[in-house]
Write a sequence for this structure.
């Protein structure tokens, strides 16, 4: 019965987005680590995740949201910035990382807020 | 093991690779005027060759294995020594020419800046991972 509390589509979507943000940080960390590796191709979150999340949110189906799984893929749109075929651009990665950090703050606060409101509803106090 | 800092293993590998690169650059600069090495020849410039090694078990069921950076080998730059005219030098040949190491200080300085920038970028990643981990720990707190 208690699971019902944590099965609201909004809460699940926030959780999945948080997963994606964390995975994205991993991808960016790797891209920056391989800044000077010849032939390295940058990785990023698979583009399919966003559309799948959007579809699942629109349907409001908790099961569909739960089965979502963010994954990483080689970014095929990135162009090589140097002769060695490496597709990582430091400035882009740092910008993506900052954006990701903000997204992470937002998602953690969102989840925190949801949990706090739930607690408030249960205990009746702030 | 639980991974609290996301993806920092590869960052750590990159940090140590850049450190090696900086070490090699400082060795090059230190020996910019070494005309007589242990083998009796002028010092030869060294270059670091990077490669990515597949690091297995990169957690996160991302289904993609992430390559970590590592130093493959340190090679000698085979370009010919720079000849300068200095008849007073003990290493000068009969015509007064001295073979100096094939080191261009400007090139080394540019490499050094590039290596330290990359190092800083990787440090920024660690900082960011830490902030994210702290934020994740604060979920549910007031």
């Amino acid at each position: 019965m208690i699971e019902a509390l944590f099965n609201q589509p909004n809460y699940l979507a926030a959780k999945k987005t948080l997963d994606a943000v964390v995975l994205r940080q991993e991808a960016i960390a790797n891209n920056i680590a391989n800044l000077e590796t010849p032939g390295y191709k940058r990785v990023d979150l698979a583009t399919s995740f966003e559309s799948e999340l959007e579809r699942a949110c629109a349907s409001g189906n908790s099961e569909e949201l739960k089965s979502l799984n963010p994954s990483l893929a080689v970014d095929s749109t990135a162009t090589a910035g140097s002769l060695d075929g490496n597709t990582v651009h430091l400035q882009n990665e740092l910008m993506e990382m900052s954006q990701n950090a903000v997204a992470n703050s937002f998602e953690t606060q969102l989840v925190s807020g949801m949990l706090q409101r739930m607690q408030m509803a249960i205990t009746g106090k702030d | 093991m639980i991974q609290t800092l996301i993806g920092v293993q590869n960052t750590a590998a990159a940090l140590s690779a850049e450190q090696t690169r900086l070490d090699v650059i400082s060795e090059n600069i230190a020996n910019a005027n070494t005309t007589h090495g242990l083998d009796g020849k002028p010092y030869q410039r060294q270059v670091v060759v990077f490669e990515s090694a597949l690091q297995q078990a990169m957690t996160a069921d991302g289904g993609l294995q992430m390559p970590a950076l590592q130093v493959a080998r340190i090679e000698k730059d085979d370009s010919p020594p720079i000849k300068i005219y200095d008849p007073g030098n003990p290493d000068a040949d009969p015509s007064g020419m001295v073979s100096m190491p094939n080191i261009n200080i400007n090139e080394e300085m540019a490499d050094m800046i590039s290596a330290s920038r990359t190092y800083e970028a990787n440090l920024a990643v660690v900082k960011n991972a830490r902030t994210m981990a702290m934020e994740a720990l604060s979920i549910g707190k007031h």
Summary: Residues 55-62 of chain B have pLDDT under 50 and may be disordered.
